[in-house]
Amino acid sequence: MNKTWNARIIAVMAIMTVVGMLVCGYGHAALSTDLLISGEAGVRASAPFASEYLQDLTPEECKKAGELEQKRMIDKRDGNEYWVIKQYNGACWMVENLRLELSVADTLLTSEDSDVESDWAPKFDTQNTIPAAYAKNEGRSFYFDGYIIINPTTTANCGTSKTGPSQCPNQVMAVGDRTPSSDPDFYAKNGATYNDTEYDAHYRLGVYYQYDAATANTGTGTATGTAPSSICPKGWTLPTEAQFRGLPMTYAGEALLAPYFYTNSGYIAGANKLAYVGYRNSSGSAYLTGTMANTSRTACGAFGCLSSSKHIAMNMRCVLRAE
């Protein structure tokens, strides 16, 4: 056997050894659903998120992340942290409700840090009470972030016409001195959303936004199509109806419940009307989307999607833009 054939055999054996190590999980690149072995690209395995800030996460980093990879990332605008997950369909979503508080005096969203095309300032401060009277479409927002959902899978609701979550003691609780857990699987491991010292931040109520506020005033009146702007961080946006429908509701034959999708937070439909907190069906627990039709917009939740008036204040989550 000549030297040329010897060299070829040695090279083939070396390649087989490397591939064998990868399949067995040795070395720095374990085999995963994202593993690629092709051409000059060589071997690339899935990787954890590296970004610390929401505004720095890129579509490329999202693509490289492993399926259901989670990490808490910081919003540069106010320092709030949010769980981010790579969903089964490959999209990166926030899996906490947005809780950006708006201030007439201090909030100015720009294209440098937010999903806006031009500078935007709110008309009203975020409030922690629901006023006795206010207009339907004026960009209000309501802050109830000191509360978390007790049971993420319940269908027992709190009813309607509530002035705040404190009137729903069977559905929500105040977190008090507890701190957010750093474990993304806190609920799955503990069978509860809190213990004596920690709570699972996936289940915070967050801020409820009227559509004018959520879309930075680009989804007002009879606007149709997709809202061009939102108060999401830069690089993120309000998900469309199609993006919500693209989330798998089951995986390996099992239903996907919170934290991957919904927190059963209900909505605010007018003066002193916090409704259906804790209800996981078509009467509540919907999220704002960027999809609009005249004076309504689509809201989506665990039950699917429906048309809803723009003035109803709901929670919102953001999805990473594809490009």
Outline the low-pLDDT stretches.
1-44
Rg is 23 Å
Beta-strand portion reads 15-25%
Q: What's the total count of β strands?
A: 21
Give the structural class. Answer: alpha+beta
End-to-end distance, in Å?
54 Å
Spatial arrangement of strands, main beta sheet? 12-18-19-20
* Total of domains: 2
Largest sheet: 4 strands, antiparallel
Explain how this protein is built.
The chain has 323 residues and is of the alpha+beta class. The protein folds into two domains: 3-44, no CATH class; 52-323, no CATH class. 13% of the residues lie in helices and 22% in strands. It contains five helices and 21 strands. The strands form nine sheets. It has a four-stranded antiparallel beta sheet with strand order 12-18-19-20. A three-stranded antiparallel beta sheet has the order 3-4-5. A two-stranded antiparallel sheet has the order 1-2. Strand 3 and strand 4 (81-86) form a beta hairpin. The radius of gyration is 23 Å and the shape is globular. It starts with a helix and ends with a strand. Residues 1-44 have low confidence and may be disordered.
